[in-house]
Design brief:
Elements: H1 2-26, E1 42-48, E2 79-86, H2 88-96, E3 127-128, E4 134-141, E5 144-151, H3 165-170, H4 182-186, E6 195-198, H5 212-216, H6 220-254, E7 258-261, H7 264-274, H8 278-285, H9 288-297
């Protein structure tokens, strides 16, 4: 308990310190002169984008950070747009009013993270982060700008032991996981995930197998019986899994998850993107005839 009190005291002290820093940064004493706004000059904004790594970062202060979360890596392909929401005259009026805090972000941004329509005309050209994870905006006119990430980079996959996935989702180390619907159901991922999307991007093949030499040693009557049973169990399994999936999905929904189902048009976009991987898959399978027949059977041939 004593340790908890110390932690809480530390958090409260930090909060007070940050509040005092904010007040100091944006409010001058009555005897002090407000900063001079130099009109006609331009400036530069550089954004650094990183993958999260294995630990949380700290709240930004506007200063250059010299340390990053453990395992953080520069992320290429994230697009950012700056929106000029206050011009020089607005800035001068703002500072002349002796402000004690920054303007609220929701003054300019909708609840879904997009810029409000009345400020959309102040957009700069989008800049994409490079190999170093940086996006730089140069020759910016004086004003207040809102930064919005307007393009999501390619997905970053993270190999992880399955036993660690629940905690990783809970801590936001992972944004999501890909599995059949029974997996988030049986592992109670609905406690740490909000959305589930039906993409139908993969079909599992469950096979009924027997040693070929053993099968050949059986009588024709025995072979026919096994083949018939195999056909029957395939149909039974399809029907059984469909009911189980419906049960699992309903449980996820009952526990607060939101369900998204792709339209035929958007599913086709997934198909087209996946075709870029065909060459790699062929290389791994090392049997072009098998691959082509499988793709044709699934209606996904090139």
């Amino acid at each position: 308990m004593k340790r908890m009190k110390k932690i809480l005291t530390g958090l409260l002290t930090l909060a007070m310190t940050l509040s005092m820093m904010t007040m100091t940064a944006f409010a001058a004493e009555p005897s002090e002169k407000m900063p001079t706004i130099k009109t006609g000059e331009t400036g530069t904004v550089t954004i650094h984008k990183y993958t999260k790594g294995t630990a949380e970062g700290t709240t930004g202060t506007g200063k250059v950070e010299t340390s990053l979360p453990t395992g953080a890596e520069p992320l290429k392909g994230a697009g950012f747009t700056l929106y000029k929401v206050v011009n020089e005259a607005g800035m001068e009026a703002y500072y002349n009013a002796n402000p004690t805090s920054l303007p609220a972000v929701d003054t300019y941004v909708n609840s879904d993270g997009t810029i409000k329509s009345e400020y959309a005309s102040g957009a700069t050209a989008q800049v994409i982060t490079d190999n170093n994870g940086t996006a730089t905006f140069s020759n910016l006119e004086l004003g207040f700008y809102v930064v919005i990430e307007t393009t999501v980079p390619d997905a970053v996959t993270t190999p992880m032991n399955f036993s660690e996935v629940y905690n990783a989702l809970q801590l936001n180390t992972l944004d999501g996981q890909e599995n059949p619907v029974d997996v988030p159901y049986s592992n109670k991922f609905y406690e740490v995930q909000k959305y589930i999307s039906a993409t139908d991007h993969m079909a599992d093949a469950w096979l009924v197998g027997i040693n070929s030499n053993l099968f050949k040693s059986l009588s024709k009557e025995q072979q026919d019986a096994i083949n018939k049973a195999g056909e029957e169990v395939q149909k039974w399994n399809v029907d059984f899994m469909e009911k189980e999936d419906e049960k699992a999905l309903q449980t996820l929904l009952d526990n607060g998850m939101e369900y998204n189902e792709l339209s035929a048009e958007n599913r086709e976009k997934f198909v087209e993107v996946s075709k870029s991987c065909y060459g790699k898959f062929k290389e791994l399978i090392n049997d072009d005839e098998l691959f082509d027949k499988t793709a044709e059977f699934c209606g996904k041939s090139e």
